[in-house]
Amino acid sequence: MGGFLRRHKRVVPYLLLAPGLLWLAVFYIVPGFQMFMTSLWSGTLETGYEFALSNVSNYTEALQRFWPQFSRSLLYGAAATLLTFAISYPLAYTIAFRGGRYKNLLLFLVVAPFFTSFLLRTISWKIILGDTGILLGPLKDLGVLPEEFRLLATPVAVVAGITYNFLPFMTLPIYVSLEKIDKRLVEAAQDLFATSIGAFRRITLPLSLPGVFAGSLLTFIPAMGDYVNAELLGSPETTMIGNVIQNQFLAQNNYPTASALSFILMAGILVAVAVYARLLGTDELTAGGV
Amino acid sequence: MAATTVALARPKRTFSERSVRFWNRYLLFIYTGLAIVYLMAPVVVMALFSFNDPAGKSNFLWQGFTLEAWLDPFAVAGLQGAVMISVGIAFASTIVATILGTLIALALARHDFRGRSGTNLFIFLPMATPEIVLGASLLTLFVAIGAPPFFPLSGVTILIAHIMFNISFVVVTVRARLAGFPTHLEEAAMDLGANEFTTFRKVTFPLILPGVMAAALLAFSLSIDDFVITNFTAGGTVTFPMFIYAKARIGIPPEVNVIGTIIFLTAVGLVALSTIMARRRAVRDEAMARRFAAGEGA
Fold first, then answer.
1. Residue among A213, A129, A7 at smallest CA distance from B195
2. In order of start, what are the domains of chain B with their CATH numbers?
């Protein structure tokens, strides 16, 4: 065996890759194809399904019928991504540039909350944002807010939940790209009499953009597909495309429509990833570390 | 001449420059403190409500302090079984995904081969796919096969799904650790007559072990916490997150918060422990290197 490997050095990487990539091929790529096939089915669970290319109408019908949920997902996803960016950038900046000996501790504190169950975290927000909860209760008692004011079951609560739950996907890539910046570049700019703002705008910000792009992608994608926040913190008026997909799959057993919806979602994401890979290359995608 | 004087004089601090200084010196730290409070708030609430004594079923309002839930966390019907299933699946999926992912990471970090950028993209895609699409597409596959062990859905299908989404995270984590360490140690071992397997066992593996442990920890916590993909591939099997979700509407019993708090403390403890051990090792290595250098000098 050792002799064979020494003689065929080029085979080694493929042998290392094979088992893992095979697993991904069978349980990631093949299901993707199957979902595409299923999206072109017609029929119901009772009558049985039939495949036909003409069922491409599943797509147009699904888009028409669930357009409000699609646009809501886009809107909530975009809002949450912007918010995570606004919260993350100063945080990542402080840790990377001012963290000093507390850098690792601060980073740990940022990541630690996410070792709690995703669902329990979201339910905690339900408690915090409750109508007479820790946040609104005192404000209502003081008369700052009217009695009927509420956050739960509104888009605000859903976007807040999504923002919180996907925050590290933004903070960590930005931190990684800021950490990589050679601090002497910033010092050089300041020696050349750039103002702090000027040095930030011309050196730090442009060099951290790959992290911002990666973070935006990694936040927007799960935010767009999320349905747990809308389910637990929202109302029937705040349902997102994820709620529809899971309802059509698991409650209505309407596999063709649900597959078409999932496929539209996935297609949009593939376009986004392709644009990213074209602009910034593929090595950055898996080299950053989590 | 006049221009030189202007350029050499330290520019007068404008108001905006002064506010930037203030921002840099104080506000950034105040902000970071507030951000950490914000991040920790739900965890604190979760832990706090494990001590709540809810009047009815719903555990959303503070009613009074009790240790009841902590004294018998498995008093709630079905909770113990759900936790056991989650832990079992998390262990199994972690072991398989860590092995498969580490092999891929070794290939990516240690070898140059055709199809490299394609592989990078292939590893990244499952992480970039929304969980709901991962779960839904697996469901369509399992339904289309329609035969055991894929259908009816069971713990086996959950395990298949968890291994699938964990592989990429393991690759990324192990690869990040491998990136920093040089290949000449392995080359030296080979020059000294070690074969590939001895080199791997004695040199490569000890070096990547911290990265592999970190990856396993991440895989375990992703698996034990997963709800969305599990929901699509579980059938009648109830994992811990599915138990929580089912109870979310009628009210979470405080016992669930107890289990959540225990899982959180265990994960944080393990991370802290591995960090401390890594630091100890670094200090020891440095001391040894210094002693070695001193010996050489004498």
1. A7
2. 77-252 (1.10.3720.10)
State the pLDDT at residue B121: 87
- The letter for the amino acid at B68 is E
Q: If you count residue pairs, one on A and one on B, with CB atoms under 8 Å apart, how many are there?
A: 288
Residue A229 lies in a domain: yes
Tokens of B276: 């401390």
pTM over 0.80: yes
Q: Is position A137 within any domain?
A: yes
Judged by CB atoms closer than 8 Å, whether chains meet at A27 and B164 is answered as yes
Q: Give chain A's domain count.
A: 1
ipTM value: 0.88
**Is A82 inside a domain boundary?**
yes
pLDDT at residue number B207:
83
DSSP assigned state of B146: -
How far, in Å, CA of A51 to CA of A251, rounded? Answer: 22
Q: What token pair was written down for A154? A: 């509104």
Give the pair of three-digit tokens for residue A289: 């570390």
CB A127 to CB B11 under 8 A?
Answer: no
Are residues A23 and B164, on separate chains, in Cβ contact within 8 Å?
Answer: yes
Instruction: Give the one of B61, B101, B179 whose C-beta lies nearest to A20's C-beta.
Output: B101
**Where residue A184 sits, what CATH number does that domain have?**
1.10.3720.10
**Which residues face B65 on adjacent strands?**
B52
Q: Which residues of A touch B60 (CB under 8 A)?
A: 126-127, 130, 133
Range of A191's domain?
60-282
B-chain CB neighbours of A201 within 8 Å are none
Residue B12 has a pLDDT of: 61
- Which residues of chain B does A116 touch, with a Cβ-Cβ cutoff of 8 Å? 42-43, 46, 260, 263-264
> Rounded to an integer, what distance in angstroms lies between the CA atom of residue B116 and that of residue B74?
49
Give CA–CA dist B205/A217, Å, rounded: 33
Query: Which residue is it, tokens 């001895």?
Result: B198
- The answer to whether position A221 is within a domain reads yes
Range B275-289 burial, b when 16+ CB lie within 10 A, else e: eeeeeeeeeeeeeee
User: B-contacting residues of A 110-149, CB under 8 Å?
Assistant: 110, 112-113, 115-128, 130, 132-134
Which residue does chain B place closest to A176, by CA atoms?
Answer: B176
